[in-house]
């Protein structure tokens, strides 16, 4: 008998979608060790391996664009439109190629986050397509005006063909999806001993004086690094290794590997460092928000203009997380006085469900066990 096989189609945008998909894939693998995971993505293998503990196959394909960006805040709408035009021109050949691959590998299920073409590929292959996200690209593009209306309508039509949507918290309504199941927050879990981490990285400040700066896989140009010296009693941690050195700045290389609690070597990820910190400074993005909220770590978020998901993420953050919201000028142009201001408490007392990985993984495993 063939192994139960899941084809995970991951949107071609930054690192966040790859991270949350890999975390869910890892949970599927834990619950069904025989599963064959095929990750269809342009994300680098090292990133996926930092979340996935077992074996998997990478199929390097990109079925959508997301948003073309030069860094985590700067968007290129023209280039985004042009890349989509190219994908849609190649739509028939893309679908034919993937159907052939899916049938050859006896794939049982497509799990997508969240390329629209995945539903059409699944339909042509005669297998279900389940999707998972907190927003759809139709929602993002529709906010960009009339030039993107036709593209947004086409994407909504693709999403309408999806058999099931697992809707994360921090979501927009996602009305294009006819069958929705709300689940909890998703993301990775810290895997290292905190005392060992402090010693390895040379952190001597307490959590309230330790800050993680993380802006996703695209980084953030022009961090005002002179502010590090103004707050010499703080320790700042970043994965951006291109900043000038400062005594209180720890630049973590993506290649740094440490033994986890079971003596297996893994790369350090932002989620591993969050428990060392009294706050995380970031831009609006589901994966960082979700991992911090799962760990109850306060979030300081920049605002983000022109991206429809941003105000929704910030609203959810204010409802459920300890937070600060700062403007780009607060971060780029001023003296970071926000570090001297008190953190804001969440508006609501109830907590968000944190078991999204488990809920999605169990649904997938239940389906795979009943395929035959």
Measured as a percent range, the helix fraction is 25-40%
Q: Which parts are unreliable, with pLDDT below 50 for 5 consecutive residues or more?
A: none
Radius of gyration, rounded? Answer: 21 Å
What structural class do you assign from the helix and strand content? alpha/beta
End-to-end separation in angstroms reads: 10 Å
Number of helices: 14
Biggest pleated-sheet summary: 7 strands, parallel
Strand content is 15-25%
What's the order of the H and E elements?
A: EHEHEHHEHEHHEEHEHEEEEHEHEHEHH
> Would you report the number of β strands?
15
Give the integer mean of the pLDDT values: 93
Largest sheet, order of strands side by side?
A: 3-2-1-4-5-6-7
Q: Globular, elongated, flat, extended or rod-shaped: what is the shape?
A: globular
Q: Care to describe what's here?
A:
- The protein has 372 residues and is of the alpha/beta class.
- It has helices at 16-31, 45-49, 77-89, 91-104, 117-125, 137-142, 149-160, 194-201, 226-230, 270-273, 286-295, 309-320, 328-332, 356-369, and strands spanning 5-10, 36-40, 57-59, 109-113, 129-133, 164-167, 180-182, 210-213, 235-238, 249-251, 257-259, 265-267, 279-282, 299-302, 323-326.
- The longest helix is centred in the N-terminal third of the chain and has 16 residues, at 16-31.
- The chain is globular and about 60 Å long.
- The chain starts with a strand and ends with a helix.
- The mean pLDDT is 93.
Give keywords:
seven-stranded parallel beta sheet, 15 strands, 372 residues, 36% helix, alpha/beta, 16% strand, six-stranded parallel beta sheet
């Amino acid at each position: 008998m063939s192994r139960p096989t899941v084809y995970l189609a991951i949107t071609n945008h930054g690192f966040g979608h790859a991270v949350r998909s890999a975390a869910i894939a890892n949970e599927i693998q834990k619950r069904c060790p025989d599963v064959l995971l095929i990750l269809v993505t342009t994300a680098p293998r090292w990133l996926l391996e930092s979340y996935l503990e077992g074996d998997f196959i990478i199929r390097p394909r990109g079925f959508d664009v997301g948003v073309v960006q030069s860094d985590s805040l700067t968007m290129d709408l023209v280039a985004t439109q042009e890349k989509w035009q190219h994908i849609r021109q190649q739509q028939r050949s893309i679908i034919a190629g993937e159907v052939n691959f899916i049938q050859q590998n006896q794939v049982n299920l497509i799990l997508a986050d969240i390329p629209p073409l995945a539903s059409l590929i699944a339909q042509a292959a005669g297998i279900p397509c389940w999707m998972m996200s907190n927003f759809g690209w139709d929602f993002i593009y529709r906010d960009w005006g009339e030039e993107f209306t036709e593209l947004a309508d086409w994407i909504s039509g693709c999403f309408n063909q999806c058999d099931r949507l697992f809707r994360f918290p921090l979501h927009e309504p996602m009305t294009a999806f006819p069958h929705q199941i709300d689940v909890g927050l998703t993301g990775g879990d810290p895997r290292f001993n905190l005392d060992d981490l402090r010693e390895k990285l040379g952190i001597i400040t307490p959590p309230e004086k330790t800050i993680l700066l993380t802006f996703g896989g695209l980084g953030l140009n022009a961090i005002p690094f002179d502010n590090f010296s103004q707050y010499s009693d703080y320790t700042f941690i970043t994965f951006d290794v291109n900043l000038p050195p400062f005594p209180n700045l720890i630049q973590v290389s993506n290649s740094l590997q440490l033994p986890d609690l079971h003596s297996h070597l893994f790369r350090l990820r932002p989620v591993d460092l969050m428990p060392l910190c009294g706050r995380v400074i970031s831009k609006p993005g589901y994966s960082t928000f979700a991992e911090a909220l799962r760990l109850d770590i306060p979030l300081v978020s920049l605002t983000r203009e022109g991206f429809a998901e941003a105000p929704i993420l910030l609203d959810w953050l204010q409802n459920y997380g300890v937070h600060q919201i700062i403007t780009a000028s607060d971060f780029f142009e001023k003296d970071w006085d926000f570090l001297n201001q008190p953190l804001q408490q969440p508006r609501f007392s109830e907590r968000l469900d944190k078991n999204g990985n488990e809920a999605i993984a169990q649904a997938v495993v239940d389906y795979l066990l009943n395929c035959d």
